[in-house]
Amino acid sequence: MDKNTWIGFLLIAAIIVGFTMLNRPSKAELAERQRVQDSIAFVRAAEQEALRISEQLKVEADTAVAKKDVAQEDVQARLLAAYGTFANAAQGEEKWITLQNEKLKVTLSTLGGRIARAELLEYHASGDSINPLCLFRGDESAFAFTLITSNNRIIQTSNLYFTPVESAEPNKAILRLKTTSEDAWLDFVYELSDNYMIHLTLAPHNMQTELAQNINALELQWRQLIPQQEQGRKFEERYAQLQYMLVGGDMEKLSESKDDNAKESARVRWIGYKDQFFSTVLIADDAFLSSQFQSTVQGKHSGYIKEYNTHTSVPFDLSGRNLTGMRWYLGPNHYHTLKAYDADVERDQRLYLNKLVPLGWKIVSWINTALVIPMFDLFTSWGLHIGIVILLMTIVIKLIILPFVFVSYKSSAKMRALKPQIDEINAKFPQDKMQERSQATMQLYQQAGVSPMSGCLPMLFQFPVLMAMFWFLPTAIELRGKSLWWADDLSTYDAVFHWGFNIPLLGDHLSLFCLLMTICNIGYTYITMQSQATDPNMKFMKYMMYAMPLMFLFIFNDYAAGLSYYYLLSLFITILQTMIFRWTLDDKKMLAEIEANKKKKAGKTGNSWMERMAKAQYERQKQAREQAKAYAKR
After folding, report:
1. Residue 607 — pLDDT band, cuts 50, 70, 90?
2. Nearest alpha-carbon partner for 225 in 330, 127, 156, 137
3. β-strand partners of 274
4. Long-range contacts made by residues 425-433, C-beta under 8 angstroms, separation at least 24?
5. What is the tens place of the pLDDT at every residue in 335-354?
6. What is the rounded distance in angstroms from the CA atom of residue 174 to the CA atom of residue 167?
7. Domain ranges of the chain
8. 25-41 average pLDDT score
9. Which of 70, 85, 172, 186 could bridge to 179 as Cys pair (CB 3.0-4.6 Å)?
């Protein structure tokens, strides 16, 4: 290697080392991380040590409570031995507290101090136009903290009864976990905002002597079953996924198609239990520490899509000077609703909840956010029917790519006009002289000013837009419940035939919009094949061209009707464009233009791509002939 190369390597190494040094945590940060990790390790070690004793004492205490003939003093003694300072909270009556705004209704339970039910008042489950959509209810969700008492008893808050405390503030509820000491308690303070967020604050009061002194983090267990909310279970499963965001903005996901689990030692900002159109997201005011995640696919006839489990930790200050807080987002996967939570927020504090809405790969996502979503918002703001909105979007997209499509069709027309001359070349050079045939064909293209590559240009521009719509329409909650003609819900399939049994790849139904799209696609393929110059020896490729539309019938039969409707409109407009191009581009005039171009270029040389390709091919053939002659002389 030369001197410049060595200097380059040294500069790169210096940059890497410098970047590492700048991003290395300080001693204080390392000490804090170690303190938190030591606290978590202590909690988990204490859990393993005291679990057997605690469970045995709880069984004895519950047995004493159940027996009528056991003295009350004995019952209290056993409860105190089993639950320690929380013995008084081990018995009680479950009560319900409701917090509600225009969008969200949550029901709190005094047993465990948790959210027992969450309802979205503006939405309904598929097939239910009366009751609000329920994200979870009753045993479908479990949420608990692990508390370790000063006498080494391990208690789950889910087993304790909280006492409601009156609050003068609207949409605020205080659930108090009392201890045997009259001046020590732990409050769960819930505050419902005016949207889909509800905040929980853990406020300890004089708990230093009631809980283990070494605790500065609390274990948190969160489980939730995701009920099937949409008509198409198979399609809904594709979007149901456990996702979490690391502090710093990196998104991680568990598999949506199979059972999966993950361990995360990095700090986690939020954890999302996601369905196709709705999510339950737990957001830490600070961060979640040392987390474990699990996603389990549920049976087809269970009524549920997935079960999600999280075991994590949150910082906790026994003195109450630094309160532990977290928020729930209980709402729709609506791009603007989620993105609004980052408005007027410093960059390092943004939640990026809008990443819960799948918008495709990076370039496709950019097209969605820069073009598709603004255009969709504009047309819907006019109060138009959703079918008209998709039609207008299709027209606008077609107008954008129209110049490239015209170039492609004009190139195809020139190829078709050259077909008789290409046939002459094919007849002149048999298949055993493919190099000579290819060279003659390239020379003809060069003289006529035709580039076979020009037909690929429109697809290069059109494909990302098609993929953007492919990602956007099935996840656009605005389509949910919107009807069009025979389709009652454009966010799911529009089945017109059900046969009661499963056909491999197709399913148990046939979607009409998908069928019409397939028929239109076959028609477009026929028109395209008739207008192109094809090699008679490539019959297999011709059959493959017709097989592709039939494959789309199996692929899109389960997809959203709105997506099939868009592709149907797009194909129909493409056919109209093709017919118009045919009327405006006459083959005779095209051939005359080609002949004039050939005469114009006769005797001239240049540096066009076609000329360079032809020259390179000629040189390769020349070298091959010389090598063959040399080999023959041997």
Report:
1. very low
2. 137
3. 241, 279
4. 426/535, 431/537
5. 999 999 998 888 888 999 99
6. 7
7. 85-358, 366-594, 604-633
8. 56
9. 85
Question: Strand 185-192 vs strand 141-148: parallel, antiparallel, or unpaired?
Answer: unpaired
- Helices marked H in 349-452 — which ranges? 362-367, 373-381, 386-417, 419-428, 434-448
Residue 266 has pLDDT above 60, yes or no: yes
Distances (CA, A) of 354 to 234, 235, 281, 381, 623: 24, 21, 12, 21, 59
- Spatial separation of the C-alpha atoms in residues 470 and 491, rounded to whole Å: 12
Instruction: Please tell me the distance from the alpha carbon of residue 512 to that of residue 497, in angstroms, as a whole number.
Output: 8
Please, what's the b/e burial string for 489-527 (b: 16 or more CB within 10 A of its CB; e: otherwise)?
bbbbbbbeeeeeeeeeeebebbbbbbbbbbebbbebbee
- Position 84 scores a pLDDT of 85
Bridge partner list, 107: 98, 117
Q: What is the rounded CA–CA span in Å between residue 42 and residue 214?
A: 8
Output the six-digit token pair for 170.
């609207």
Write down the pTM of the prediction: 0.77
**Dist CA 420 CA 547 (whole Å):** 28
Rg for the chain (alpha carbons), in Å? 34
Lowest mean pLDDT among 45-54, 102-111, 162-171: 45-54
Q: Work out the burial of residue 537: count CB atoms within 10 Å of its CB; fewer than 13 is exposed, 13-18 middle, 19 or more buried.
A: exposed
C-alpha 81/C-alpha 73 separation (Å) is 12
**Dihedral of CA 583/586/590/596: which sign?**
negative
The interaxial angle of helices 512-531 and 539-556, nearest 10 deg, is 160
- The stretch 295-308 carries a mean pLDDT of 92
**Angstrom distance (rounded) from CA 520 to CA 523:** 5
Q: Report the amino acid identity of residue 325.
A: G
Provide the CB-side half-sphere exposure for 464 (13 A, CA): 18
CATH architecture, domain 85-358 = Distorted Sandwich (2.70)
Comparison of pLDDT for 449 and 501, the residue scoring more: 501
Q: Which residue has the tokens 């454009």?
A: 490
Partners of 325 in the β-ladder:
201
